[in-house]
Amino acid sequence: MRTQVAIIGAGPAGLMLGRLLQLAGIEAVILERKSADYVLSRIRAGVLEQGTADLLARVGLGDRVAAEGLPHGGIDMCFDGDLQRIDFTARVGRHVTVYGQTEVTRDLMEAREASGALTIYEAGDVAVHDFDGRQPRITWRKDGIEHALSCDFIAGCDGFHGVCRASVPERAIRTFERHYPFGWLGILVERPPVSEELIYAHHERGFALCSMRSLTRSRYYVQVPEGERVEDWSDQRFWDELRGRINPEAAQRLQIGPSIEKSIAPLRSFVAEPLRFGRLFLAGDAAHIVPPTGAKGLNLAISDVAMLGAAFVEHYAERSDAGLDAYSARALARIWKAERFSWWMTSLLHTFPETGPFGRRIQRAEFDYLCGSVAAQTSLAENYTGLSLD
Ligand code: FAS
Ligand code: PHB
To answer: Where does ligand 1 bind, in terms of residues with CB under 6 Å?
Structure first.
């Protein structure tokens, strides 16, 4: 088998890249180790930057986002019960859209299937070969048979635990990591959201987030120490803890119910440099991880492949490698700004073992400054709704 671009991973990054290439008439095969149902079963992000929603519309997938997505013109920041709304529309003239990552993935999957482009699910033992030469290859096993695919380029869209970054020689890659001593316990519930917009709450007991998937389905999170087990958290224990961390008015309004999904996600900041190794390119979680506090993970994956897709189109359509040569530096410049914002939001809103009394006063002062400064609110709004690609 042969193709122009082999994409490893059918998450949002791989599927969006496949869509961009297919619309440009560039052949791409996606290899995914899990089943399509498994990929869709993962409950992850919930907020689309305006640039992400705009790109979905540009690739012909804007209808359901427009019909079912919830435009949000701001968020509420809460600190020990005090509330401050950040008005995105007034500050930067942009908004975000609440639309689950699962739905983004579903839209991309269905469009790919309708186009007839090849996605190989349940591809076992995927391996990448000779990406530093001129004839990269992919091998994998399926139904007990070994397969091979030669290609011009490999796009590593296989997430944090994927094979692509792991296949790069240690001497050729540098990684940067910040470990957080806590995780997010998340719950999905078929109840109306507690508030029209998201509430990000700091409390001495820990961070909490009130989010949603629709006007009838809500998503909530509480910060938990690392090592916590989800089986130690009954629904009631979760609701009690959430109520104790958000502002009293919201706690009063909270409609609780049986969880339809409950899981703990670890938090980390991670960046690999560079993002190109000969004919192998990394994008999305294969290249970086952000704590979900800034709602950047999914959106960064999409902006990476928007840049990489344009570079592949330039290579094939204009016979120019300027975009491919510039991809790593260009993507990393935006990735690091998102890492900074996600780290800043996490540092402001979470309790850390080493914070201490001085650290908590600094966090309070940061919140008070945010409440009183249009410049600070504009900065938050600019980052949360998404920086430009350049
Ligand atoms: P993904 O991890 O989504 O996709 C990679 C794909 O590659 C997967 O389908 C995987 O099965 C496949 N793969 C892996 N190894 C392979 C191999 N060897 N061969 C073939 N395929 C392979 N972001 C937010 O913005 N907000 C959130 O609230 C949020 N919550 C999250 C919760 C959790 C538990 C996790 C893990 C992440 C969360 N994220 C969140 C971040 C998340 O949304 C990612 O940023 C997003 O999925 C990145 O998309 P991809 O880069 O496509 O990676
Ligand atoms: C979510 O709805 O899952 C969500 C929203 C905003 C975040 C993180 C998660 O920052």
So the answer is: 8-14, 31-34, 39, 44-46, 101, 123, 126, 157-159, 162-163, 265, 284-285, 292, 295-298, 301
